[in-house]
Specification:
The structure holds two protein chains of two kinds. Chain A is mainly β. Chain A contains no helices and eleven strands. In chain A, the strands form two sheets. In chain A, strands 2, 4, 5, 9, 10 and 11 form a six-stranded mixed sheet that branches. A five-stranded antiparallel sheet of chain A has the order 1-3-8-7-6, with no helix packed on it. In chain B, strand 5 and strand 6 form a beta hairpin. Classes of the chains: A mainly beta, B mainly beta. At the A-B interface, strand 4, strand 5 and strand 10 of A face strand 4, strand 5 and strand 9 of B.
Chain lengths: 112, 115
Amino acid sequence: GENVEQHPSTLSVQEGDSAVIKCTYSDSASNYFPWYKQELGKRPQLIIDIRSNVGEKKDQRIAVTLNKTAKHFSLHITETQPEDSAVYFCAATDTGGFKTIFGAGTRLFVKA
Amino acid sequence: GAVVSQHPSWVICKSGTSVKIECRSLDFQATTMFWYRQFPKQSLMLMATSNEGSKATYEQGVEKDKFLINHASLTLSTLTVTSAHPEDSSFYICSARKGGTGELFFGEGSRLTVL
């Protein structure tokens, strides 16, 4: 089955700096890669996603890149703000849009 | 967006009792719902896929007799933790997709504490 690895587990940046979180997946049949943000005690919320027919997607300060050949995808947050502090999960969904498997999560701290 | 509601948000029970958690899709129909378990500071581990009108599909290592799943309607799936033990204490969270999109919408989660 699908296995998603995520790094780093913890990331601390200064406000205004960029943050990059990287994930790899094992199942080449996966074709949908969402990123979720989870604040303490709350439910995960989708922040951006990318499908396998696209290499890059951007939404304001957030961007995601996908390298299908290497089975890598990354989340880039620019101009970080304290409210970006949360746990971020990458995930991969199989071809049938069925199961979504999550990475271990990255705890992002943005210092003011 | 879409709304998924989960109840109860937290529950404390004695060891050996059973606990039922409900997951509802409030503004859409969900033929499939997913149950995840999350330990403190850890990831979301898929436990099982709940299928409306048929048996749930369990992930490897998840005891189906321990975690009973029922998906009797297009808007409701239930997870029953049977004969709960302290090691079952965790955050259980359900999710569902709306239509053909890939996005998962999550419930609020249910924190189970077994004494």
